[in-house]
Write a structure and sequence with these properties.
Oligomer: single chain
Helix content: over 70%
Number of strands: 0
Order of helices and strands: HHHHHH
Number of helices: 6
Strand content: under 5%
């Protein structure tokens, strides 16, 4: 009686638990490897140098993130892949009540990464626009022969 009620379900669950643990360990190791390989490939393409020219590093610094875009992308990919592995391991356990929410979470990850990329792009573009506006306003306040200065008396009287 005790065997049928307690031990039989536990022994039936142990292979799934072992498989989930193996999937978790191998998946996390693969996620780290893929993130490192991607970071090396992006580094070979000189993405950090381009990001510095575009002002991405300053935007990352303002957000409190590391100044390396390659490092930020590598960490984001590693976290996303690790979450997918965790969700797959939980799904392998056969917990049916979690399967729908796990599928929704996995499908939400690309949207989250695109949203983060758009936020970073918006911050970079706003920095570029601010620099251009600073230059234009600085040019407007200079004295030019063809236009009166806002500080000159002839500007205020007209």
């Amino acid at each position: 009686m005790l065997f049928e009620t307690w031990i039989a379900p536990v022994t039936a669950f142990l292979p799934r638990l072992l498989g989930a643990l193996i999937l978790l360990v191998v998946g996390i190791l693969l996620a780290r490897l893929i993130a490192r390989l991607l970071a090396k490939a992006l580094d070979a393409l000189d993405l950090d140098e381009r990001a510095e020219r575009w002002g991405v590093h300053d935007a990352l610094d303002r957000m409190g993130m590391p100044r390396s875009l390659v490092k930020v992308i590598g960490v984001a990919i590693r976290i996303a892949l690790t979450l997918v592995v965790i969700f797959a391991a939980l799904s392998l356990l056969g917990l049916q009540f979690l399967s729908e929410s796990l599928n929704q979470a996995v499908l939400f990850l690309p949207k989250l990464l695109v949203a983060a990329a758009l936020v970073i792009a918006g911050i970079v573009l706003s920095g570029i626009a601010r620099e251009r506006l600073d230059r234009v306003t600085e040019q407007w306040t200079c004295r030019c022969r063809w236009a009166p200065s806002p500080r000159s008396p002839s500007w205020r009287s007209s």
